[in-house]
Write a structure and sequence with these properties.
There is one protein chain. Helices cover 58% and strands 4% of the residues. The chain has 27 helices and nine strands. The longest helix has 37 residues.
Amino acid sequence: MVCWWFAVALLGAFDAWLGRNTFNPDGISYFDVADSYYRGNWDQAINAYWSPLYSWLVGLAFWILRPTPAWELKVVTLVDFLIFLAAMSCFHYFLKGLMLYHKKRSTNEGSGRYATFPDWGWVSLGYAQFAWSSICLMGVSADTPDMCVAAIVYLATGHLLRIGLGAHRLRTFVSFGLALGLGYLAKTAMLPLGLVFLCIAAVVVDNLRKRAAPIIAAVVTFLLVVGPFIFLISWAKGHFTIGETARLNCAWHINKVGGYVLWQGGPGQLGTPIHPPRKVDSKVEVYEFASPVPGTYPLWYDPSYWFEGCQPHLEMVGLVKRLARSAARFVLTFVLTTSSIAVIVALTIILWSGGGKRPNYALDKVLSAVLLIPPVVAFGMFSAVVLLPRYVFAFYTVFWMGLLSCVRLEDRGESKRLAAAVSLAVSAILVVSILGAWGQSMVENRASMAELLHDQPPHAWFIADGLKKLGMREGDKVGCIGNGFTHSFWARLGRVRIVAELNVTGHGPSIEIEEVDRVLESMSNPAVIEAFRKTGARAVVASAIPDAAAPSGWQKVGHTDYYALFFDEAQAASRPTTPRADALRRQRRTLSRANRRDRLANPVTTASRPVDALSPVRAADAPGNTAGPPPPPIRTRPRTGYESSRSLAVGDTTRR
């Protein structure tokens, strides 16, 4: 078991290293919320859309390590890997409970003894399945709380197995309720699933009447953990709510509210926005959203604020379409996968070669309730809205381990050898599939292993650095032409805020040729530029522009395909220079004045005099000194909280 633990840890570390420079738009919001927590901006940190647990962990790491923007992603990758190790420890707890339960219940069933997978077979199957689902379905460095949810699912399932075995100590139930409460703090969807787990605990416990006190202790612990945060977000929103994720996802995926941002009302009877993003000019689709929500990309820092007034409802046509789409995705993602096919083939082999007699596949009450019901409920719940592998990969692992646990062969030598062979074969297939997934990723990205291992900064870093060299400062407000989700990557690294947007590229990660034409047309439109100027943005940035195609006045951002247009007079007059170039220009002016004075006094000795004797220029400004002058003072934005949602009318443009 120790060897498997270290092997899977190494696989997870390598996967985290490969994804150390990747971004997730959701992760940007979690990082911004983490900033609010560790800076003490509590009014901004309480968020009804993003659950707090992952932001707490990231914020704690930021507070301890104080990373620079260049090291921020490395710190987040470290946090993700530590969460992965915690999830693996919780899985180990679940696996030991499953092995213990199986060993205790499979020794004497009916009139004969039954054999199951040996202990080393359970360990091999379990850890291989855990590694495959965590890496291939989720990814270690995903910048989301889904790995936290996985750890809690494994821990809660392990508790249920021990409760089914008769572990009725009070601390077991208190720990069970605490785990379910933390699950809600990791993801809102874990609140209804937590209630499902509590109901299962009441079913599998022996003699519920005598064991009511431990169940009540688990429920009370659960409520004590989830209650304070429910109170805070309900107080912030002005009505009772456990979170706004279900409501908004219903509007987006079932009612088909257009896009995820820039909602201006409709379609149909979905309501009127209370405080939507503000349209700057009726002639162009430029929207401003600088206040009152903070964050790198305020539209995605708290979507529930911008969608207040939206009234989603259950449409049978939309629900049926969503369920059909989720069913197709389920088949492609969870059935026609290496893991599923390997387990199905293994079960088929055992069925037809079970030591000469048909094996027993009957699941008892505990295993049926613990290992099958929560995954089925989770798959059904997410299928009604949006079914993504990272949402349910832990339930997927529990489900397949439940199917494997139902195998009970006759206690004969042939059956034991068959179980051992199946364990080795399935484990090997899963490990090979992980390596194959990495190879496929390299082929798709056209990158060699050497390039992946080379610590090359992400593309967003070159954009942020290029804008800094053009004169952008931390805390500046910028507008963007294109998808704000994509722009939020470099904005986070550059510590600037996107406060206005003209989205002409949709919401996908790539930009088509016709979308590039729309971007170029917007860049040369005076009405668009004037609208961005009115938002208070210092510059506007556009992406995916071919070289030499940008209109006059736009400046190329480093060696990227981004272009920027600055609105202040100094930037508009000429190409801005770096602080180092400004220092050299000041030095040349000082030297010229000193040379004129010296030529009048002693024209012969002027050329031989050292620089420091000629002028009072600092050593840092002298030619050949690479240190340069001290950087300009950093401008930070003031701390402002949300305005009360009840004080804003439709179209209110009040600034804080």
